[in-house]
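User: Hello, can you help with two protein structures?

Assistant: Certainly.
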Amino acid sequence: MKTAIVTDSNCGITVEQAAQLGIEIQPTPVLVNGEQFFEEEGFTQERFYESLTNPDTSVATSQPNPFDVAERWRRLLLTHDKILYMPLSSGLSQTALTIKKMAETEPEFIGKVYALDNHRVSITQKQTVFDALKMLEEGKSAEEIYNWLNDTAACSSIYIAVGTLKFLKKSGRLTPAVAAIGTLLKIKPVLQIQGSVLDKYAQVRKMSDAKKTMIAALRNDLDTRFKALREQGKMTIGVAHTQCKREAEEFAEELKAEFPDCELKFVDPLSLSVAVHIGPGALACGCTVKY
């Protein structure tokens, strides 16, 4: 049985890296003043942030067109028996549920396409891809991989320190009044993604305090919810950011010192689907199970 792996560009794997890994990337549509562009198809992170920070430009992300997804599946099924499709969490986009329904109800895809929703994004979604590749190397079937990834869906956590309230206000996640007060008081919110929505976790005044808060939150997760997996050597950590690579690399070194028993896997840019709400200058860390 030959199985194809398809993920979307929210995982942070580039088209070039995907080619080296032998997987495919479904690009995420980005709307700039209503005009559609595709991440990893000529629309770079740099161009995204240029548009996002332009006060006269409206930027949003969108779902991949189900027709385009289906066409990719049809092409892959000419050379593969099964497909594992691993998109962004349904808690952040309806894409996963839309595509999952298509895989489970369209006769041409039933039993051939396994569309996953294991509630991952960015560095945790990327880990999912590497887990699937490792299991394929061991001879696991598409169904076995799908089941394991579903069973471990709750075994991940992300914390994000936001550099500015401007984009949370712009996306409607903060009212103008709350954003104005927060800006005046120099508040930096720490957000969390516990497998689903982007939600409030804490608020601090300085990025140094935000980093301490995120480290403490990660430590709590690893000492409680994920204690057994950590003791088995099955928990990884990672860092993500929006246009602050140097700070992210420094933060990664801090995490390696704090959690020497957990493999640090990735230091990556955050998904555009998250970045559109938080803007540049954000720093994040997360932990996730590995196969």
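That covers the first. Now for the second protein you mentioned:
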Amino acid sequence: MDRLIKERSEQIHKVGTSAHELACEKKSQAGSVSQRACVFCGSRVVLYPIADALHLIHGPIGCAAYTWDIRGAMSSGPQLHRLSFSTDLREKDVVFGGEPKLHQALSELIEAYKPKAAFVYSTCIVGVIGDDVEAICRKVSQEHNIDVLPVMAEGFKGTKKDGYKAACAALSKLVGTDDQYKAPDFSINILGDFNLAGELWMLKEYYEKIGVNIITCLTGDGRIHEIRRAHKASLNMVQCSGSMMHLAKEMEEKYNIPFKKVSYFGIEDMSEALYDVASFFKNEQMLDKARALVSDEIKELIPALEPYKAKLNGKKAAIYVGGAFKAISLVKALRLLGMQTALVGSQTGNKDDYMLLKKLCDEGTVIVDDSNPNELSEFVKSQGVDLFIGGVKERPIAYKLGIGFCDHNHERKEALAGYEGMLNFAKEVYASVTSPVWKFFKPTITP
């Protein structure tokens, strides 16, 4: 443990005591068992919510099993995305090549399900044996008159963040292919929202109330025909900047569509996201509607939060999530509940994100980039936290240490975005932190 922390010391910062700037955007330290996922997983979680597309994983069955139903993404129509198809490469395919198997699988699945497009994910073993996935995709595309998009996600080339780039590269081949569409006034795209637990539908309702049209969401409740016309929007609202910033920048360069980084979690950031759109369109009527909406929502929400705030005031929380922008919103939301953030970190944060976290957090807060289970366990114990907010990989850490846990990862089934989501978040935090079960658990916590 001492050796790992020493080698990663530049990626750990304690507010008020550490003199160095936090190092970030680095490859994971070999042997540190990083909480980051693989390249294939990164691409899969971005593209998975496109509900009317075929998703075929070219690799061993374990890759498909690992990422099956990996997001709590909901669809208002097709459910094709929830089927985790795989070519199931085995020893014989590794020796003689898996291209015939891929061609057969694609042809049969396209015939059977009639998807609007197909995504083919190449995994680590494909990069080793050298299958020409792109050539097979081109061939099947011509044979069946359908877009078959290769997602080059061989895991040994990098980490989850590289998977995001691979997903954006596939999406960029679709964006702009429908030039006949005429967009209504005040049209936007939402990039990096994945309709977890139906959150996109809540956001659409907010925007509709202030007079804003959403052409598409990339990729929550996604549809191929909507993605094709995404270049007709006037503005891109980037919710998950880690996963979608590559596409946002490309659309700005290629189609002259500006983008704004936003968060839809918490009162402050949700309200700012509405004001940002109205300000961009320079529409006073829209801005008045946004102010009225925010005012009405806050009038209902603040009194509803008070009972939970009374019980949570003074409690400490640890945060470790995928994107740092999400962590920033969580720090603000916890403060609204009277809680202090004692530990915060992310898998993919950049220097600007961490500088903002440093300004937001109290003295003594530990800020960490690309951490691992040993480090997180030690920091949670030394900081004496009452709650851990993270994903599926952080849940065991919290429970083994006998502290409450709040799931804020992409497989969750509870809506946490918007004003309604803030109330859900307060209820979940309260239920976890004050659960009587912790009375029967006696962990060794070092203050």
